[in-house]
Amino acid sequence: MKILVVEDEKKTAAYLRKGLTEHGFSVAIAGHGEAGLHSALTGSYDLMILDVMLPERDGWSVLAELRQAGKQTPVLFLTARDAIHDRVKGLRLGADDYLVKPFAFSELLARIDSILRRTSARQPEVLHIGDLELDLVHNKALRAGKRLDLTPKEFALLALLGRRTGEVLSRSLIAQEIWGVSLDAETNVVDVHVRRLRSKADDPFAEKLIHTVRGAGYVLERRR
């Protein structure tokens, strides 16, 4: 599970990184609002922990722009602002929870677990994009009712594109999500796997679903 922490107070950020890492999370830190928004829009995270009072852009506007962009990453506000109207504002903007500083780490973990359980429950088990059917529980893909013979990595790649239908995914994001590594500029591993996936999931069919966006990455969507 990957968590993005947007926190300008270095001691608090280091404390959160240490504690969350010890509990098995992968943690990225952004030290101000603009950096946090950029990371949230361009990366893929299971949860965002967001302060309100941040340099360059406050947490309210970070969340508002995130939601306007269609990103539904779960957000937990972690802030010293404890007024009721602040809590209400955060939740109305689309936050999943609101925790006031100072806080007990055990309560933070409990709230994170609760958010992730709710988020997992909201995820569909089967996706349909045109005549493509993705069974995310049984790792099975069909097109026009025909089973696709995919390797585990090919299915993982197709599922990643399917879960984020209509969103252009960069090669570096795909590499991080599928292989858990940063992409070397000279490496074409993503392009090779996309070509192999297309040969099975797209080329035999009239409607093409996997598209290249020049200079940006790949997107799965219907274009009729």
Task: Describe the protein.
It contains 8 helices and 11 strands. The chain has helices spanning 10-22, 33-42, 59-68, 84-93, 105-122, 152-163, 171-179, 189-201, and strands spanning 2-6, 26-30, 47-50, 75-79, 97-100, 126-129, 132-135, 140-143, 146-147, 210-213, 217-220. A hairpin with a 4-residue loop joins strand 7 and strand 8. Helix 2 packs parallel to helix 3 (59-68) and helix 6 packs across helix 8.
Write the layout of secondary structure elements.
Elements: E1 2-6, H1 10-22, E2 26-30, H2 33-42, E3 47-50, H3 59-68, E4 75-79, H4 84-93, E5 97-100, H5 105-122, E6 126-129, E7 132-135, E8 140-143, E9 146-147, H6 152-163, H7 171-179, H8 189-201, E10 210-213, E11 217-220
Parallel strand pairs: 1-2, 1-3, 3-4, 4-5
Antiparallel strand pairs: 6-7, 7-8, 8-9, 10-11
Helix pairs in contact: 2-3, 6-8
Summarize this structure briefly.
This protein has helices at 10-22, 33-42, 59-68, 84-93, 105-122, 152-163, 171-179, 189-201; strands at 2-6, 26-30, 47-50, 75-79, 97-100, 126-129, 132-135, 140-143, 146-147, 210-213, 217-220. With 224 residues, it is an alpha/beta fold.
Structural features:
alpha/beta; five-stranded parallel β-sheet; 224 residues; elongated
Shape: elongated
Question: Helix/strand/pairing class, anyone?
Answer: alpha/beta
Q: Number of DSSP strands?
A: 11
Strand content: 15-25%
